[in-house]
Amino acid sequence: MSKDELLKLLENAIVMGHLDVDDEGFDGTMEGTPGTLELVEKALNEGIEPGEILKSFGESMEKVGKLYESGEYFLPDMLASAECVGEAMDIVEPKLELDDSSAGKGKFLIATVKGDVHDIGKNIVATMLKGAGYQVKDLGINVPAEDILQAIKEFEPDFIGLSALLTTTMIEMEQVIKLIKEEGLDNIKVFIGGTPTSKEFAEKIGADQHCRDVIEALQALEKMGEVS
Amino acid sequence: MGEQESQYRRALHVEPVERFAPAQVEGIHAASMKLLAETGLQCEGKKAAEMYRDAGCRVDEIQKGKQKLWRVRFPEKLMDKALSTVPSEVILGARDPQNTLYLNAKVPAVYFGTGSEANIYLRSRIDEFVSVADSEKRLQYPVFEEETGSLAALCASARLIDHLEHADFFIRNINIQDDEIDSTNKDVNVYFASLLNTAKHVQGGITDLEALPKVISLAKIVAGGEPHLPLSFIVCPIRSPLFMFNESSQKVIAIAREMIPMVISSSPQGGVTAPIQEEGMLIEINAEILAGIALAQFAKPGAPVLYGSVPVRARFDTLEDCYGTAEFAHYAMGCVQMARYYNIPCYSSAGVGDVKRPGIQAMVEKMYSYKEVASAGAHYIHYAFGLLDGTNIFSPLQAVLDNATIALAKDMLRVSSFEEADIEAALKEIDKTAEGSGMFARGIRKQIRRNVVSSTYEFISKGEEDQVFEQAQAKLDAYLADDSNILSDEIIEKVYQEIPGLLDKIVAR
C-alpha cells in the first residue's frame, strides 16, 4: 500500500469515527476492519513522518466539520471522529520532534467547578477540543478554585473552560476567575458553560466567553485564533 | 416487513390498540346485522335494488312522498356470503412504483394521506410585526389569504404532497371551481392535475359516471406497463342514516366491475345523522358500509374495496361537524376494529383542525387524533394533511406542519423490536463504555442509521424563540417551486392527444 493510500484510509477511518478494530463504527458494520488506531500505528511503522500524520488529522476533522454543517452528520458523529483523533494523538505525540510537539492550536485546561459532579458537557467539550487540535488537560469534577489555579501554574494553558450544571455551583466560577486575576494571569481566556450560565452571567463574573454548547466553543476558539 | 411487502412503500407497523373487547366487537356486529335484516336500507336506485334482489336480499318497493324507493333487507347469511368474497389485500399503484401501497387487513400497517375536497385554499407568507409598545420587539408570523379552490391550487397541493416524506398518498383535496370546469370535464382534469404533479398514489371521486372510461384510459397511459393503476376511487353511496343514493350506487357497481380498488365510505355525524354514543355510531356506520360493500361484491365478486369509515361528531353550539373531540378518534378506532373483524383493509380518518388558521389549536387537535387512530392499526388514514375549519380549508403551510407532527406520531408508535442478540450487544456496550469514556455517544450513530432512534421535531428552534412557522413556510416555498417530478413531456403529449376535455392551463406548454 502506498503512503497516499494509507493516509487516505486513515482519513476515511477518522471521518467515519472508526476508532479501532473492535469498534462497530459509523453504522455498525466496521468491526473487524482496521480503525484509526491500527492505521496510525501502521503509518508510523512504515516510516510516515508524524508531522504528516498530524496534518491528516486536521484535514479529516475539517471534512467532519463540513459534514456536520451540511446536516449529514450529527454531533455524536463528530464526537466519535474527535475521539479517534484524541486517542491517536496519544500514539503520535511521543514520536514528534521537540519542535513539532507544540500545543497545536493551544492549551486548554478544563474542569467542573467545586460542588458540582456533572461532567457530560465538560467531557464532550474536552473530547472535541482534543480532536480539533488543542492540547487538553481535564481536571475532572468537583475541582476547588485553588486546585485549578495550581494546575494553571503547571500546565500554562491559553484557555480555561469551567463547567457547572447547578445554579448553586456556578457561583464558584466567579471565585476561580477572581483567583486568576489576583495572580495576574489576565492573558488566559476563560470560557464558561453549563445549563444555568448565560452571556450576562459571563460578563458579570468577568469570563471572556460564554458557550451554549461545544459548537459555540469551537467557533469562539476559531475566532480568537484568527484574531491572535 | 415480509419479502413481498418490501417492494412497496414503507408503512408504519403498529401493535394495534384494541379499544373494544372481543365481546363488544361481536355485539356491534350482531346489532348491525339485525339493523340490516330488520330495518334495512332505503335505496333510491332501481338498478341497485334489482342487484340486491337478484343476490337474495328482501326488496320491497315503498313510496316516500312522491318518490319511489326500495327497502332492502339483508339476511345475515347473505351478508356473510358477500363479505366472504372481499379481498383482504389491496394494492394501490403509483406513478413511481416505489410508492405503491400494500394494504393487508391482517397486517396493522398504516399509511397517511390527504382527504376532503376543500373549497378554500389558504395561501400564506411570513410577515413581520412590530410591538406597539416597543418598536425593538419584532415577531415573524404568517399572514393568510383565502382563495377559492382551483385547478392551480390542486396542482400545487399535489406537488406539495409529492415532497412530503410522511404523505403516502394523495386524495384530491381541492374542490376545483374554475369557470371552465363543469361536471362533464371535472374528473379528467382533477385526475390529470393530480397525476401530473405527484408520483404517489392518487385517489378521488367520480362526478360523472360517463367520465369513468376516460379516467381509466388516463390512468393506463400514466401507468405505462405497470401492473397497478396509479389511481383508485372513493364512493360514498350512503346518506346517513341508512339511505342509498341512486347515482352513487351506480358508481359502486361500475367501478366494481372494472376491478379497480374503491373506498366505500359512509360519514355519519354523531348527534345528528347517527347516535352520538360510540356503540350507536358504530352499529350504524358499520351497517351502512357493509351494505355498500355488499353491492360491490354482488356486482363483481372479489372487487377490491376498502372499509371507508369517516365518522364525525356534531359540535353542540352549531351542530356542524366537529373534529377536535375524543369521539372523532374513538369512532375511527372502533371502525378500524370492525374492519379488522371482517378482514377488510380500513380507510380511516384523522388529523383535522376545527380552527380556520394554523396554530396551537390545530396542532393539538391533530396530534392526538393521528396518534390514536394510527395506534388502532388503521391502514389508510385520510384527512391527515392541511385540513382546517373542519374540512373546508386546505392550508399548504398546515400540511407541512402536519408532516412534521405525523413524523412524531410515527416515532411514538414505533414497535419495540429488540431481540436476545440486541440485549447481549447492549450489555457489551454498557460494559465497555463504563470502563472507557463513560459516554455512549459513539453508540448513537449505529442506532440512528438503523432508524431505531426518534428524530427531533422537524422545526426545532436553534435559538430561544419558536421559529416553527418561519421554517415551515420556507420549506413550503421550496417544495412548491420544485416541479422536477412532474410527468414527462412525452406522456403529457400523449395524454392531451388521447383524453378529451383537458384544459391547457394545467400544464404550461
Topology:
The complex is a heterodimer of chains A (228) and B (509).
Chain A: H1 3-15, H2 36-45, H3 50-69, H4 75-92, E1 107-112, H5 120-131, E2 135-138, H6 145-155, E3 159-163, H7 171-182, E4 189-193, H8 199-205, E5 209-211, H9 214-227
Parallel strand pairs in A: 1-2, 1-3, 3-4, 4-5
Helix pairs in contact in A: 1-2, 1-3, 2-4, 3-4, 4-5, 6-7
Chain B: E1 12-13, H1 22-39, E2 41-43, H2 46-55, E3 58-64, E4 67-73, H3 76-84, E5 89-92, E6 101-104, E7 109-112, E8 120-130, E9 138-148, H4 151-163, E10 169-171, H5 186-197, E11 201-204, H6 212-223, E12 231-235, E13 238-239, E14 243-244, H7 246-258, E15 262-266, E16 269-270, H8 278-299, E17 305-309, E18 312-314, E19 321-322, H9 326-342, E20 346-349, H10 360-375, E21 380-382, E22 387-388, E23 393-394, H11 396-413, H12 420-435, H13 441-449, H14 468-481, H15 489-498
Parallel strand pairs in B: 2-14, 7-21, 8-23, 10-11, 11-12, 12-15, 15-17, 16-18, 17-20, 20-21
Antiparallel strand pairs in B: 1-7, 2-4, 3-4, 5-6, 8-9, 13-14, 18-19, 22-23
Helix pairs in contact in B: 1-8, 2-8, 4-5, 5-6, 6-15, 7-8, 8-9, 9-10, 10-11, 11-14
